[in-house]
Amino acid sequence: MFVSAVCKTRNVCLSAGLLGLVTLSSVCLAQSTQAPKRRIAVMSLDVSQDARFKAAQLGVQNDLGVSMGDLIINKLNADGKFILIERSALDKIIKEQNLSNSDRSDQNTAVKLGKIAGVDGIIIGSVSQYSGETQTTTTPGGHIGLVPIPGTKNSIYTVTVGVTARLIDTTTGTIVGTALGNGVSTKKVGGLSAIQTSGNGISAAMVTDATTQAINQIATQIESSPLPTIAAEAKAPPSVVAPTVAVVSTTPKTPYKGVVADVSGTTLVITVGTKAGLKVNDVVDVQRFNHVVKDPTTGKIIRTVYDKLGEAKITEADATSAVATYTGTAEVKVKDQVSSQP
After folding, report:
1. Cα-Cα-Cα-Cα dihedral of 183, 132, 124, 40, to 10°?
2. What is the band of 28 on the pLDDT scale with cuts at 50, 70, 90?
3. Residues of the signal sequence (predicted)?
4. What is the DSSP letter of 191?
5. The pLDDT of residue 311 is above 50
6. 107-136 residue pLDDT tens
7. Which residues, at least 6 apart from 194, have a Cβ–Cβ distance to it below 8 Å?
8. What pLDDT does residue 27 have?
9. Are the C-beta atoms of residues 62 and 52 closer than 8 Å to each other?
10. Rounded distance, CA 252 to CA 277, Å?
11. Nearest to residue 76, comparing CAs of 84, 88, 68, 67?
12. Which residue, of 189, 303, 304, 336, is most buried by count of CB atoms within 10 Å of its CB?
């Protein structure tokens, strides 16, 4: 009996120990397979005509769509789930592509910009409502004996902010998440001691409160959406366990070439990506067309001569575009050629 009890006790302990190891193993596996942060861009929001008009009545003088876009960027960045790119970088691409405010909510345009910017996902959206309303009821006065009693005025002031947003996967061009934010801030003022904070009773604090509610709702819903594809891995082959001994590949490099689509200081966006064989950390030559050489007999072009401006190292890449850091001294311009080194 005693031996049997001991065995049972040992079996229980062994089972508990194994369960603990399995649990610990599961936790470690979950941590090791945690998805990397996605790079996200946020376009300035489109603003409905009604929302723009009523925002002006509330004292909003700046571009409401730009301001709301910045608030979404700030909130998502503070939450830390995504890597956000600066709006100024996106604005530069928009200017280079000769796009207008009317393109803010266009899905195809957003995908194009996202690919050039090298992001995994891009958020577009609109401000559908931005209004302030007042409801007032008046109670007439009266008399108690010979004593007059003044009437009372009761008012309810309401600010409503409505925002919609979509998260688009720049690799597939599909919508992976939608969000709807509806912020409402209400203030009741009434009785003989009613005090209004402004001419119409709607304060700046109410506008801020309603806007913050809407933005927080948008961020929460976007963050709970499925993650967009990592652009640089969109068409990557299945991973293979590499040997520990370094092996020098004898496979010749596939040559590729493209052109410069955007220049921002030393940062270049080029029109060639992983689909052509380009990889992160590749070094490419940056060149400018000089002239063509023709066969003097047939007039056929036999060679094109380029002047080398410098080199650039690839830092990010997706299927059809890449971002590179330029190290040359000559000025680079849009449409200059880039090509792989031998």
Report:
1. -50
2. very low
3. 1-30
4. S
5. yes
6. 888 888 888 889 999 999 999 999 988 888
7. 152, 153, 154, 155
8. 44
9. no
10. 11
11. 84
12. 336
**Residue 161 bridge partners (DSSP):** 130, 183
Contacts of 233 (CB under 8 A, 6+ apart): none
Distance CA 160, CA 271 (A): 44
Please state, in angstroms and as integers, the Cα–Cα distance from residue 329 to each residue in 149, 230, 286, 290, following that order.
84, 33, 11, 18
Residue recorded with tokens 């998260």? 167
- In the chain the domains, ranked by start, together with CATH numbers, are 39-190+200-231 (3.40.50.10610), 253-340 (2.40.10.410)
Long-range contacts of 111-117 (CB under 8 A, 24+ apart): 111/168, 111/170, 111/173, 113/41, 113/43, 114/41, 114/168, 114/170, 115/170, 115/231, 115/318, 115/320, 115/321, 116/261, 116/262, 116/269, 116/321, 117/41, 117/85, 117/89, 117/90, 117/93, 117/269
CB 64 within 8 A of CB 51: yes
* pTM of the full structure: 0.55
In total, the chain counts a number of residues equal to: 342
- Listed residue (97, 150, 75, 81) closest to 262, CA to CA: 97
Specify the amino acid at residue 212.
Answer: T
> DSSP class of residue 243?
P
Question: Are 310 and 327 spatial neighbours (Cβ–Cβ below 8 Å)?
Answer: yes
- The DSSP bridge partners found for residue 136 are 155
Calpha distance 295→334 (Å, rounded):
30
CA distance 223 to 177: 9
pLDDT of 139 over the 60 cut: yes
Residues 6+ apart with CB under 8 A from 184: 158, 159, 160, 161, 210, 213
